[in-house]
Amino acid sequence: MNSICKRLEQYTAKRQQEVLIVAVAIADEQDKIVIFKGFSSSLMHPTAFDADVPVLPDGAKILSIDRIASPYNPEAPRYIQQGLSWEAMQALLLEAGV
């Protein structure tokens, strides 16, 4: 089974007009991860140079997902949907075939 992060990356590789901002809890720390065109990066913590090191570990709890139209401008994001739950996002992943 694909990890959550890999599935989200595959989704953005297929839907390159979208950027995902994922709010997560990893252990007892919160993080925001941006996923675009198949790649992920933390907005709050250093991201490893090695692409095989997951930015979003399997044990992370997804708090919410925002779908934003690209190009992403952090000062004026164009939201497609805000505050999606993991369950709602899974339906979009299935629709995209990932």
Q: Shape from CA axes?
A: globular
Note the total helix count.
Answer: 2
- Total beta strands: 5
Residue share in helix = 10-25%
Distance between the termini: 11 Å
Structural class: alpha+beta
Beta percentage is: 35-45%
Order of helices and strands: HEEEEEH
Give the topology, please.
Layout: H1 4-14, E1 18-26, E2 29-36, E3 39-42, E4 61-69, E5 79-84, H2 86-96
Antiparallel strand pairs: 1-2, 1-4, 2-3, 4-5
Describe the structure.
With 98 residues, the protein is of the alpha+beta class. Helices cover 22% and strands 37% of the residues. It has helices at residues 4-14, 86-96; strands spanning 18-26, 29-36, 39-42, 61-69, 79-84. The protein is globular. The termini are close together. The mean pLDDT is 89.
Characteristic terms for this protein:
22% helix, alpha+beta, 98 residues, single chain, 5 strands, five-stranded antiparallel sheet
Q: What does this entry show, briefly?
A:
By secondary structure, this protein is of the alpha+beta class. The chain has helices at residues 4-14, 86-96; strands spanning 18-26, 29-36, 39-42, 61-69, 79-84.
